[in-house]
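Structure record:
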Amino acid sequence: VVDSFEDKSNGTSMTCYRFYKALKERGHEVRVVAPFIQGEGFFALKERYIPLVTEIARKQHMIFGKPDERILKKAFEGVDIVHVFLPFDLEKTAIKVARELKIPYVGAFHLQPEHITYNIKLQNLNWLNRLIFWWFKKNYYQYLYHIHCPSPLIKNELERHGYGGKKYVISNGFDPLYTKRSHNTKTDDLFHIIMVGRYSNEKNQQVLIEAVRLSRFSQQIQLHLKGIGPNLAKLQKCAQGLVYPVDFGFLEPQDLITLLYQCDLYVHAADVEGEAI
């Protein structure tokens, strides 16, 4: 059960899709409850509109699912376990339905409070980050007794903020398409540096741009910043004047692999990151 599944440009949706795909490949029956999905095993919900919040979230390619107990009950018929992804009303309702039907359920911690505060430009208010941690626990995570943590960092953060339940550190993993290259396939003598990540406030592609600008090897560096997000124009302006124009844009996995095989160095610059894959 997840708020956003169709748009694969945000990390949670991509993780959910990989989780779904991997379980299917191992012979399990998997059902998905989310907005705007269709097909066998998919149970579509309407989008939930939250004034102001929805407008901000859509810029990050994130939407909210409108809880529908009838659809949830239908999706849960005969299942062995329910997995919920985010601390919002849809997942909270899913837990309620699972408990009523006496179906085991587990959850995950994918959304850090800083993801919210950075995108409303209040990241420097530490008390607000603490408040959101408390609100997540009070409103949602107190009902979860088994929590998937994508990294030791997330587990440590939950323990630091007094979260209960048993915590399991399991990597979100990566697509099997990303296999080790036999050799660098670039066709020039430039030094290619790449980062893959959303163009959003919690990432920090600017530091890479400035590093290239200040490098004594700037005339030999081609920087690739692949992704999508609301800060594209800001980053493009920041990158003006580099010897080689920065390569911006979103790539599908197969095209991204081709580019990665041509690069010399991967750098992940972010102020907030639960697990950088």
